[in-house]
Design goal:
The structure holds two protein chains of two kinds. By secondary structure, chain A is mainly alpha-helical. Chain A folds into two domains: 116 residues, RNA polymerase sigma factor, region 2, helix turn helix motif (Rna Polymerase Sigma Factor, Chain: A, Orthogonal Bundle); 65 residues, Orthogonal Bundle (Arc Repressor Mutant, subunit A), CATH 1.10.10.10. Helices cover 76% and strands 0% of the residues of chain A. Chain A has nine helices and no strands. Chain B is mostly helical. Classes of the chains: A mainly alpha, B mainly alpha. At the A-B interface, helix 2, helix 3, helix 6 and helix 9 of A face helix 2 and helix 3 of B.
Chain lengths: 182, 148
């Protein structure tokens, strides 16, 4: 953990410095966490909700943070869990079968007013949305965010070997989709 | 990542960039919106209950449950079946009175002799036992008793 994060954590646990430290933490991590969440839930409004919930969780649980992992992986872990919980609750509320989750996300993608990519970017995003949930997470974290497998392992609570295998399968499937779909 | 070019040429052709956008100044006022939400959450958190009340709560609950069961079972019985309850009490009282009158009828010496008398050790010979079994138990019952 870097010194800035260590100081942030110390101040967050200190009653009188807590508010200011929390503002510092939000400013430092909001963009990175937002893009991580956005790639999972796709829709901007959903991502905004999940990001707020993530920081509320952080606010409520920072006193329990044991500093065994870095602040960055702890935050990513909360953000990932919040995003997956959000999708599960959507699925439950609308009685969606498993396959329909990717359909739901696909609809979010095609109707997203803030999507700024071209045709080929849209095709790549569609290929990614067809992946199983775990492979989709791993692909985004490795390919776009270029996260180390060791950090990813802490975020997703999965072994490095399993993550490498997931990424390998994901890349193959994306390539296959890009090659065979017009 | 260079290895990817050989393994996945189609994917490698696509520029690695973020295709998603956000509304203008979204990140600038995110903290202010978050702060409003956190303040609202803080107001929702109920005030900490008095420790004594928290400790006594399960006990009071249990006592209330027993009282409720008593009221739901005993009171309706008392209201709708008063005779039945009175009879039960009467029968019990009658048995007690009979027993007491027998005991009172025995003089003190006979009573202690009765208490000292070994009631469990009854002496009987094998012949007595055989004759009892042959007169009171059938062969079929003996067969059943020895096979189960």
């Amino acid at each position: 953990m870097d010194n800035d994060d260590r100081e942030l954590i110390a101040n967050l646990k200190h009653e009188s410095k807590r508010d200011l430290a929390f503002q510092g933490l939000v400013n430092k991590y909001q963009e990175r966490l937002y893009w991580h969440i956005r790639k999972i839930v796709i829709n901007h409004e959903d991502a905004d909700d999940v990001l707020q919930n993530t920081f509320i969780k952080v606010w409520g649980n920072v006193s329990n943070f044991r500093e065994e992992s870095s602040l960055y992986t702890w935050l990513y872990r909360i953000a990932t869990n919040e995003s997956l919980t959000f999708i599960s609750s959507k699925k439950r509320r609308s009685f969606m079968p498993m396959n329909d989750v990717s359909e739901y996300l696909m609809n979010n993608l095609t109707s997203d007013p803030y999507f700024e990519g071209d045709e080929i970017q849209l095709k790549l995003q569609k290929a990614i949305l067809r992946l199983p949930e775990k492979q989709r997470l791993v692909f985004n974290m490795k390919y776009f965010e270029e996260m180390k497998y060791e950090d990813m392992s802490k975020v997703l609570d999965t072994s490095v070997g399993a993550l490498k295998a997931s990424f390998h399968h994901a890349v193959k499937k994306v390539e296959e989709y890009l090659k065979n779909t017009d | 990542m260079d290895k990817l070019k050989n393994i996945v040429p189609e994917l490698s052709k696509i520029k690695k960039e973020n295709p998603y956008g956000v509304p203008d100044k979204y990140f600038d006022d995110f903290y202010a919106r978050l702060q409003t939400k956190i303040d609202a959450e803080k107001r929702l958190v109920p005030r900490q209950q008095n420790r004594t009340i928290r400790f006594l709560k399960p006990i009071i609950g249990l006592a209330a449950s027993f009282a409720l069961i008593f009221m739901l079972v005993y009171w309706p019985l008392k209201i709708f079946m008063p005779n039945q309850l009175a009879n039960n009490t009467e029968i019990l009282d009658k048995n007690d009175v009979d027993y007491l009158s027998i005991v009172e009828g025995i003089d003190e010496d006979s009573f202690y002799t009765l208490l000292d008398e070994p009631s469990n050790s009854v002496d009987f010979s094998n012949e007595d036992l055989m004759s009892y079994v042959s007169t009171n138990v059938s062969e079929y019952e003996i067969y059943l008793a020895t096979n189960y």
